[in-house]
Amino acid sequence: MSNKQTSYPRNKIKILLLENVSDSAVEELKEHGYTNVKKLSKALSEDDLCEEIKGVHIVGIRSKTQITEKVLDCADKLLAVGCFCIGTNQVDLKAATERGVAVFNAPYSNTRSVAELVIGLFVMLIRRISDKNIAAHNGTWLKDASGSYELRGKTLGIVGYGNIGSQVSILAENMGLNVVYYDILTKLPLGNATKAKSLKELLKKSDIVTLHVPSDETTRNMINEKTLKNLKKGAIFVNYSRGDVVDLDALKERIEDGKITGAAIDVFPKEPKKKGDEFETTLQNLPNVILTPHIGGSTQEAQVNIGLDAATKLISYLELGISTGSHTVPPVSLSPQKDTHRILHIHRNKPGILGEINSDLSDNGINIVGQYLKTNEEIGYVILDTDKSISKKAFEILKNIDGTIKTRMVY
Fold first, then answer.
1. Of 263, 291, 319, which residue sits at a domain end?
2. Residue 363 burial by CB count (10 A; 0-12/13-18/19+): exposed, middle or buried?
3. Hey, which of 7, 49, 97, 153 would disulfide with 44, CB 3.0 to 4.6 Å?
4. Domain check: are 357 and 221 in the same one?
5. Contact 390, 366 (CB under 8 A)
6. How far is it, in rounded angstroms, from Cα 167 to Cα 96?
7. Is residue 59 within 8 Å of residue 21, measured between CB atoms?
8. pTM of this structure
9. Residues with catalytic annotation?
10. What is the DSSP string of 164-176?
11. Which domain holds residue 400?
């Protein structure tokens, strides 16, 4: 990380952290001089957030807070959003992109936590521990091997072979499971895992099916009445990915008719806003069904790692303009140049902008020591290192380039 002081004093950069973001993030920010941190333990409504976010440079959220277009319109100083979780579904990425607001997350930090729990659920479900546990609590001794099996030798189908899915694959194989996976992208198998040609093929082969997919137009409601017909009779089904990828009513029917003999669900189409709120789902009170409150990645280790990961990305963006890992501002990284000032320029992606930037700076005798540009469909992002003696002049020139969204002098 750069030891240079940012042009804007670090203790005046306002940071708002919501939903009880890990103290590891607060400590990391304060170690780098960002002491103006306000931390709240809860999510805020859209209207409350619109008030709270005024004058804020960085906002950190988890999965409940919604960063809508209205919120972004109220965020008059916002540079970046840190999602202290895996996903970014709670942020209007299009609106953030148009406004030049970088959005970061921590996609790898709770991988192990989810994978370990999912493996544990396979054991619990295949042994029907849920039913036996409830019976024991109610005073009934269900000592019975009927319907209980070992994992070894069974086939596990993993839908989505990304960070978590591939980790589950490794652990499952070590437990003696045969692993087959399906992903719309080409993914190299780990260990002895084999790729299914289609979701239908995977469902027909698998004794246990686990989902590890994002929520998008290709996955929403992907497990429905039609696809469940392909499921192997007696299968176990686990969803620890996103709540809108499974039709729960169709899943309930398959559980009730015995096609599915066990299920574990951690994510739901509609979830309570806070701990202690009332919760209802059609899957309640079904046999051998384990329901958990979206806690797949909720371990102390994961929260610490997420805090450090997201905070580090935010600090890199504040101090060096590095946007690697952003879902909105194009990913750019440029090593610091000696005896220079660094200026960041975010602009609408239209032909000729870089040429105009270089031409205007050249016409004013400004030497560019280092430069890196990258674009996406909406915007372009360029880091420029210029001679210290004329950096203020360069900054003013960049501010007036047609199509400019944001200009910031980093140091």
1. 291
2. exposed
3. 49
4. no
5. yes
6. 31
7. no
8. 0.82
9. 242, 271, 294
10. HHHHHHHHHHHTT
11. 332-411
